[in-house]
Design a protein that fits this description.
Blueprint: H1 3-17, E1 30-31, H2 44-55, H3 73-86, E2 90-94, H4 97-107, E3 114-118, H5 123-131, E4 135-139, H6 144-156, E5 163-168, H7 180-189, E6 193-197, E7 222-227, E8 237-241, H8 243-252, H9 254-257, H10 264-279, H11 281-302, E9 310-316, H12 318-330, E10 333-334, E11 336-338, E12 348-353, H13 360-378
Parallel strand pairs: 1-10, 3-4, 3-5, 5-6, 6-7
Antiparallel strand pairs: 2-8, 7-8, 9-12, 11-12
Helix pairs in contact: 2-10, 3-10, 4-5, 11-13, 12-13
Length: about 375
């Protein structure tokens, strides 16, 4: 082995010893791990719309950044339709949710501003904050009072900039909801902005699947991220907000300016996904029935439930989480172990994801096997 490679190999071995080494694993068994909540990723209607777009000449690749020749009419059509669907003044399409969070948080909060972010916010938000110029302070998870206290300390220390509050509406590892109304009131009271990442709520929750922040969209001090690769079944993300803020991103956000534009074909597919959300509410209704079933089974087995399509089974140790996931995969259920640093140390877990790709009998069978696996590992 090259001497220069040795340090990387050593760090990988250290991860192995802590049961934290990640490996790519092919899908196998009944889907209880994907974010394809509405089952749109393999939806025949979506596939047909994509084929039709190809046939009418929509290209696979953009060929350049949006500010060069890569700005396609499908991008602009998607952004107009997404803005109308979610109720915002304007929308801007990015290649991924990670890129969107990185762009927004590295660009909009300015030097002298304060960004308060929930302690469990996604890694992409951390990347954006690290690349940005504003002071960033973590606050206790879902604790609006902690936000007020942090603002008070900042002002007393001489802070005079603009306040930004950054949260997820539905947290990806715990499945719980943010107190959006309380946080909106704080942002209004302090003349600040609220950024809501709706990655796991878009398409699933809120009126017509518009998300948990649906009643806040359209306000000048609200930005909302809607991921397109989860319930919408395709890829990318849309930032919805005021025209001024989004035009500022077009002019200053390096992840937008210097990236090849997302595939115009993906944009065409997403337009169809939005139509499906409007025209097939039964998908969301079916998912909600499955969530209620899983919620009851989780409460009965674990004494707790999330109330959402994300059902965490916190077991503590990394090794135990890995062993449980492997046992369930052998039993025919695709469930993945989630370990630090994705979740806090000591909270390794299974993340059970409920989607329209399963049936009620599948959900019952999973919890039966989970109960047996927990009993076996505890004995």
């Amino acid at each position: 082995m090259l001497e220069q490679l040795a340090r990387y190999d050593t760090k990988l071995r250290q991860l192995e010893q802590k049961d934290r080494r990640r490996r790519l694993c092919a899908e196998a068994g009944v889907d209880f791990s994907s974010n394809d909540y509405l089952g749109l990723a393999a939806c025949p209607r979506l596939a047909a719309a994509t084929m039709a777009a190809l046939e009418r000449g929509v290209p696979l690749g953009a060929g350049g950044s949006r500010l060069l020749r890569g700005n396609h009419e499908e991008h602009e059509a998607l952004e107009a339709e997404a803005a109308a669907f979610f109720g915002s003044e304007r929308a801007l399409y990015f290649g991924s949710g990670y890129a969107a969070n990185l762009a927004v948080l590295s660009t909009l909060p300015q030097r002298g501003d304060l960004v308060l972010y929930d302690a469990l916010i996604h890694a992409s938000a951390h990347a954006g904050l690290k690349a940005g110029r504003a002071e960033a302070v973590a606050v206790r998870h879902n604790d609006a009072d902690a936000c007020e206290e942090a603002i008070r300390r900042w002002r007393q220390g001489g802070g005079i900039g603009t306040l930004w509050i950054v949260v997820e509406s539905l947290y990806s590892m715990d499945g719980d909801q943010a107190p959006l109304q309380d946080l909106m009131a704080i942002a209004d009271r302090h003349h600040g902005f609220l950024l809501v990442d709706e990655a796991h709520a878009s398409g699933v929750w809120g009126p017509g699947g518009r998300g948990l922040a649906a009643d806040l969209e359209g306000r000048e001090n609200v930005l909302v991220l809607h991921t397109c690769g989860k319930a919408l079944g395709v890829s990318g993300a849309v930032i919805a907000g005021s025209a001024i803020l989004l035009d500022y991103l077009v002019n200053h956000a390096k992840p937008f300016i210097y990236s090849t534009a997302p595939s115009p074909l993906q944009a065409a597919s997403l337009r169809e996904a939005l139509r499906i959300l409007r025209e097939e509410p039964e998908r969301r209704q079916r998912l909600h029935r499955l969530v209620r079933l899983a919620d009851g089974l989780s409460a009965g087995l674990l004494g707790a439930s999330s109330g959402s399509q994300i059902q965490p089974v916190v077991v503590g140790s990394n090794g135990r989480a890995v062993a449980l996931a492997e046992r369930l995969r052998r039993d025919g259920f695709d469930v993945r172990a989630i370990r630090p640093p994705t979740v806090p140390a000591g909270t390794a877990r299974l993340r059970i994801s409920i989607t329209c790709n399963v049936k009620e009998d599948d959900v019952r069978a999973l919890f039966d096997h989970l109960a047996a696996a927990l009993a076996e590992i505890s004995s």
